[in-house]
Structures are given as structure tokens and as C-alpha cells.
Amino acid sequence: MTQPSFNTSSSTSLPQSIKQSNQRSLTKRKKKYIKNKSTILYCIVSREKETFNIPILPPRKENTMVESQTWTTRRMSHSSLTDQFVDIPATPPGDVRNTPYGVGSPNILTAVIIASWYVSNIGVLLLNKYLLSFYGYRYPIFLTMLHMLSCAAYSYIAINLLELVPTQRISSRKQFLKILALSAIFCFSVVCGNTSLRYLPVSFNQAIGATTPFFTAIFAFLITCKKESAEVYCALLPVVFGIVLASNSEPLFHLFGFLVCVGSTAGRALKSVVQGIILTSEAEKLHSLNLLLYMAPMAALILLPFTLYIEGNVAAITIENAKGDWFIVFLLIGNATVAYLVNLTNFLVTKHTSALTLQVLGNAKAAVAAVVSVLIFKNPVTVMGVTGFAVTIMGVLLYGEAKKRSKVTTH
């Protein structure tokens, strides 16, 4: 390309100020040409643009783009490139791309599951209390047998039809006998718990039930010779002291109801200890829903002779009552369904949180159930009884913390 010439011959006839101005302009143009030819070319062509309408792109800036950038990312950073005939979706920033879609959904699901667990646990307590104490259906063994039949039927649907968990089979006669032993303990615990609701208010029933860790520690020591730390045993003292305080000030205290409620609590603790002993091998371990599938029908068969001997022909009595009042049918079916939901939501809470969270929620559930029962059934309470219940719950919390620290120290 021929270098453009800069004519200075006409400058002699101009005034001195114009001469100096033209000279400075020419000097700048020369320097600009020498420094960057591409800039001069751009300037020259851009002047001609007005006459010839030549489309001009802006000069390319070097080292302003990272090679890994996509076309859509460049398009986002240059507004001049956004007017395209085909609209290309822009790549969102990295913090938006890395954010999981619908981040609140898992938290909402967990909250719904926990709420369902609370409703089912408290609901079955209130329904049992209403049936056994207020409605006049005084057959706790038969009611427990209905619970077991319901759990067996719903467990079959959940495992074999809905496939919530994989199906596990009983692999040996030895394993069958172990599950049968657990079923017997389970029967004893549930029957005693339902029977106690006939004589005791739900609030006091829950206060006694909160002492389960105390009996668990005793059975673990007696059966497995497992010793806890001194801190753990000290934490159990307020558990016992609180229940003694609540018992002495309970207006509706009933000795037989108190004894069967303690038996129910001890049975729950014994079942957890025995289950940890006899189902320890990987070949014999069963999922909680599979274990319920096998335990429930065994428990129903165990309860059948007891309900016939102690409570008589309850099925015929129930059918006769249903002819005059169909509400009893809905109560029994609803009660049996909620009894299964207790076990199902117990599994779901453990799956979506942890066993420790379940323990904490269980402690809070006892207090919530006590408050709800007082509001519904209007049973009298005393300040000393509330204080004793609070001391028991506090002792259970201290026990949980002591157990956690003991495990950390051991490991």
C-alpha cells in the first residue's frame, strides 16, 4: 500500500496561527501512522464510510477473551454482538449453574415426613385413649391384635407391591425363632402400653415412657454385661427422679395402670437390646419394614389365644356393636391404619435424617403428646407433675449427650 503524502506547501500563505495548528495536526497524523498502521487504515476507511456505506467492525482487541469462553458467553459480555438473527440462549453464570434446581424441595419433604411422624404417633395415642377410656371399647388385647394384622397387611403392600424396600426372606429356622422371640416381647410391650391408657392419662403415660433409656441401660448390663461410663449413669438419675416426682403428684394415679405402663416401657427397652444381640450378623439382619412384615403376623397369632381367653369373643361383640353404630368400624380401621403409619414414618424419618435426630424428635414428641392430650381430654395436671415431667425429659437429653461423648471417647 502506498504511504499517503501530507502536503505542506500551502501553509506559507496562511496566517501564522493556522500554520502552527496545521503543522501540529500533520505531526500527530504522521506519528499515528508510524505507530499503528491498522489504526490509520481504520480511520481512513471510516471517513469513506459516510460516502460508500462500507460496514465497518470495531478493531479487535487482543487478549480480552479467554479461549475457554463459549460464543454465548462472549455475546453476553459484548452488547454489540447481541443483535443476532438467531437467538442463542446465553450461558448463565457459574453460581447459577451450580445451584441445584428446586433447592427447597428436600427440606420441605423432610418437614412433611417429620410432621407426619408426629401426627401418626400422637394420633394413635389419642385414638387408643379415646377408644379404651371414653368410647367404652375395653379390649386392649384385641385392639393390639388389630394393629398387628394391619401392620402385616400394609407391610406386604409396601414391600411387595410398592417396593419401598427390597424384599428379604427368612433364611433359617434359627432366624425364624429369633424373630418369634422378638414378636413375643413386642406383644407384651404393646399390650401393656394400650392397657395402661385405659387407666392413666396420656400425659402421665408419656412421662413414664420417657424412662426407656433407664431400662435400656439396665438390660444391656444384665444381658450383655455392657458397662456405661459414670457420666451416662449419672445422667439417668434425673430421669428416675423426675418420674418419681410426677407420680407422687399425679391426680389420676392408678397403681395397676402405672405398673403395666412401666412394663410396657421395660418391654420396649428389652426388645431393642435383644434385637441388637440376636440379629447382629449380616445374613440375619433385616430391614425395619421387613422385620415388621414377619413380626406382625407372629404377634397376632400370639395374641389370639389371650384375647379369646381374657376378653371373650370380641369379634362377635364388635360386629354386634357395629350394627347399631358404624362409627366404631371407622374408628378401628382408622386406628389400625395410623398404627402402621407410626412404623412407616419412623422408617422414613430415619432415612431422611438420622437415628440421632429420631431420638431427639422422640423426646420432643413425648412433651407435645402430653400437651395435646391435656388440651383435648382436659385431664387435671399439677405444677409438681409438670416439673417432674420436665426433669425426666431433661435427664433423657443429658443421657443422649453423655452417650454421644462416651462413643467419641471410645473411638
Characterization of this structure:
The chain has helices at residues 16-35, 37-52, 71-77, 94-97, 105-134, 140-161, 173-199, 202-209, 212-224, 230-248, 255-278, 288-310, 314-324, 327-352, 355-377, 383-410. The protein is mainly alpha-helical and 411 residues long. The chain folds into two domains: 13-58, no CATH class; 109-410, no CATH class. Helix 5 (105-134) runs antiparallel to helix 14 and helix 9 packs across helix 11 (255-278). The longest helix is centred in the first third of the chain and has 30 residues, at 105-134. Residues 1-14, 33-56 and 61-104 have low confidence and may be disordered.
Q: Number of helical segments?
A: 16
Shape: globular
Number of domains: 2
Secondary-structure-based class equals mainly alpha
Biggest beta sheet summary = none
Rg over alpha carbons: 40 Å
Instruction: Give me the strand/helix succession.
Output: HHHHHHHHHHHHHHHH
Domain Sugar phosphate transporter: 111-399
Region (Disordered): 1-29
Biased composition (Polar residues): 1-25
Main location: membrane
In short:
One of its GO terms (cellular component) is membrane. The protein has 411 residues and is an all-alpha fold.
